[in-house]
Amino acid sequence: MSVDSALRSRAETWLRDDPDPATRAALESLLEQAAAGSSAAQDELADAFSADLQFGTAGLRGAMAPGPNRMNLAVVSRAARGLADHLREDLDLDRPRVVIGYDARYNSHAFARRSAEIMAAAGCQVQLFERCGPTPLVAYAVRHLDADAGIVVTASHNPPADNGYKVYLGGRAAEPEGRGVQIVPPSDAQIAARIAAVGPVREIPLADSGVELLGEQLREDYLAAISALPDPEGPREVRIVHTAMHGVGTETALAAFHRTGFTEVHPVAKQADPDPDFPTVAFPNPEEPGAIDLALELARTLEADVVIANDPDADRCAAAVLDPHRGDWRMLTGDELGVLLGDHLVRRHGYRGVLARSIVSSRWLDAIAESAGLEAAATLTGFKWITRAPRIAFGYEEAIGYCVLPEVVRDKDGLSAALMVAEMAALARAEGTTLSGRLDELAAEHGLFSTAQLSIRVEDLPLIGAMMERLRAAPPAALLGSPVVTNQDLSQGSVATTGLPPTEGMLLRSEDDTRVVVRPSGTEPKLKCYLEVVTDVPAGATVAETGALRRRAEERLETLKDELRQVLGAD
Fold first, then answer.
1. Is the pLDDT assigned to residue 495 strictly greater than 60?
2. What pTM was estimated for this model as a whole?
3. Cβ contact 99:213 at 8 Å
4. 205 upstream amide cis, omega within 30 of 0
5. Per the CB 3.0–4.6 Å rule, which of 101, 358, 466, 548 could disulfide with 138?
6. Distances (CA, A) of 281 to 77, 102, 294, 312
7. String of b and e for 136-162 (b: at least 16 CB within 10 Å)?
8. 461 Cβ partners below 8 Å, 6+ apart?
């Protein structure tokens, strides 16, 4: 089978315009292999050149390779020029200020540097971090420096072959509640249109001067801001194991821990330094099975109180504890940690304002807010929506993202969250309990909210639409034997009826308060189902009795997964 002539023509045009000798060489090799009959090379060419990598509310993210549907210097160059044109032409900003940061992945520095040179040549005031660092530093810098935009070159917790391009707006480019927040419509479409209008990459002007390097003072300012959160009079006796998952979080996390008095912190040595190959994990995401095995091994050896894990760009945070109900260590779910943090910030730090969560996250946070006389808010999925909740005091999503200082970082921040996990663990130890014990206390007070997720991966994307239509046409009459009393098609919702703008998804709730939200993944070929069951905990329940209730809830969640597979036709 030969290479399609139109596809070959597009690839050869790309080859002539590509500014990067490495991807030019890779493409030349790919074309030779395809011409020699390699089906793998032909498939790669078809995928890499049949479409453009889409710029959306998550910016850009994809595998690094030649072609318009991959991450490479040419695609990044067009994105940088398109963003500059959006700021200057669509928003009519004179000399917009742009902050650019990057992680330690392959090509991140090169992508960031080229973006800086392009945006400076386009008339922007550009401030580029002089070395790699956590994503929250850029989100902080956009607000702290009153920048009009921020860029982070990162693929967060994606596999080693990937990279990405995340965009924030701020300053004159955003309303007050959106400053330092990831972009939302219509900004994404406007930027995408400007990117599409950019001409040949080799004709994009580059500046050879005018890029300001951001040094250590910005990092110091960020550290000072997050280090002011822990109570200086609170207990500090706690043994912490920390892993940065081969990312960029170790330096800043350890500095924050030590500055605030948490001195017994033990990094996982094999995962502490940045390494773009992520050699000790199959997938550099703390949520993935096996990802924190080295941290748990160290925790058992040291008899630690808590394991704290950041993902590679340190915008997310996870925690593991020794669970007396299981007699072993386990990762707290994103919902459990979110509820612990929300309760702690209200109870210990006196937070007022709105406690916000995504619609797929646990309603346990709503119960915390109600008991404290505060307002709760449910938003669309993603921190671009969560942190836009009016009067937000704390926000979280079940995918281990937490915003504990919205006036400092208006995004998820795994480093300030890590400080709060350390403080919670120290306080629990001083009170003769643990984070697991604190969850039991909250369950006794508000009920036990147990959550799980069912992800259905597909090879053909139309199958996702077919499953959603099947659910709309024939929703279940009951969940776990309890009649369904709420059946919301979120794509038809309105602010007046659901409190949310339309989004693709379905929400079901039964008479016994079991809840299911089904929605397509925004980043992967998956249909995702978020499940929650609520269990009353009798007054005075013992640890053993509470443990039995937890196990029963887990069994019910597994049964609910089976029910949904049948309803969706995903057996």
1. no
2. 0.96
3. no
4. no
5. 101
6. 31, 22, 10, 12
7. bbbbbbbbbbebbbbbbbbbbbbebeb
8. 525
